[in-house]
């Protein structure tokens, strides 16, 4: 299979995850700045790959499968590091990662029945807020207003996580119906 640019960007995002995690734990001056740069670049590839694929007609089955998986891997890796660093409560991460497993399972059942579940705006908003939240938590500014902003973005991300899950299930409830 020939790799087009969007698929290469998706693979690049996956390959950036170990570098990001290593930088989060490196005992070097500026490690969080470097980790933030890698994470930010990985988030940018998420924005670009979909736009390029749609604009130039480069949507592939590989991209449909791997792009959301790469997003889940990237955000989950960041969240797990942030729990370990005590920058986010574990309960929030459990909600976020649980939603991703549920939606992945839901999509597998749907695919088995020949149903394609497209991404929703709620899911896209959720991803944007999760990425913004993780960026703010990596930066970890010590100012009161920054802590308040980070907490607010975390709550919005968690709420959007639950809302997007409910939206997927309600809009696609036929997937849970009788065997076809």
Overview of the molecule:
- The chain is built from six helices and no strands.
- The protein has a single domain, classed as Up-down Bundle (Four Helix Bundle (Hemerythrin (Met), subunit A)), CATH 1.20.120.
- It starts with a helix and ends in a 9-residue tail after the last helix.
- By secondary structure, it is mostly helical.
- α1 runs parallel beside α3 and α2 runs antiparallel to α3.
Number of β-strand runs = 0
CATH architecture: Up-down Bundle
CATH fold-level label:
Four Helix Bundle (Hemerythrin (Met), subunit A)
Query: Low-confidence parts lasting 5 or more residues at pLDDT below 50?
Result: none
Summing up helix and strand content along with how strands pair, one would put the structural category as mainly alpha
Overall tally of domains? 1
The CATH superfamily is known as CDP-alcohol phosphotransferase transmembrane (TM) domain
Helix and strand topology:
Layout: H1 5-25, H2 31-55, H3 61-84, H4 90-112, H5 121-139, H6 144-171
Helix pairs in contact: 1-2, 1-3, 2-3, 2-5, 3-4, 3-5, 4-6, 5-6
Which keywords apply here?
180 residues, mainly alpha, Four Helix Bundle (Hemerythrin (Met), subunit A), 6 helices, 78% helix, globular
Gist of the model:
This protein is mainly α and 180 residues long. It has six helices and no strands.
């Amino acid at each position: 299979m020939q790799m087009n640019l969007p698929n290469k960007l998706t693979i690049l995002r996956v390959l950036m995850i170990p570098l990001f995690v290593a930088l989060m734990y490196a005992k070097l001056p500026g490690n969080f700045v470097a980790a933030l740069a890698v994470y930010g670049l990985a988030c940018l590839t998420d924005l670009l790959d979909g736009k390029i694929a749609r604009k130039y007609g480069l949507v592939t089955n590989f991209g449909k499968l791997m792009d959301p998986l790469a997003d889940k891997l990237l955000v989950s890796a960041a969240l797990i590091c942030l729990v370990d660093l005590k920058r986010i409560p574990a309960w929030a991460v459990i909600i976020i990662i649980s939603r991703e497993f549920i939606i992945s399972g839901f999509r597998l059942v749907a695919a088995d029945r020949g149903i394609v579940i497209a991404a929703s705006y709620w899911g896209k908003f959720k991803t944007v807020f999760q990425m913004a939240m993780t960026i703010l938590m990596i930066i970890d500014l010590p100012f009161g207003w920054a802590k308040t902003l980070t907490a607010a973005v975390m709550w919005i991300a968690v709420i959007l996580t639950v809302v997007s899950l409910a939206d997927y299930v309600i809009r696609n409830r036929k997937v849970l119906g009788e065997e076809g």
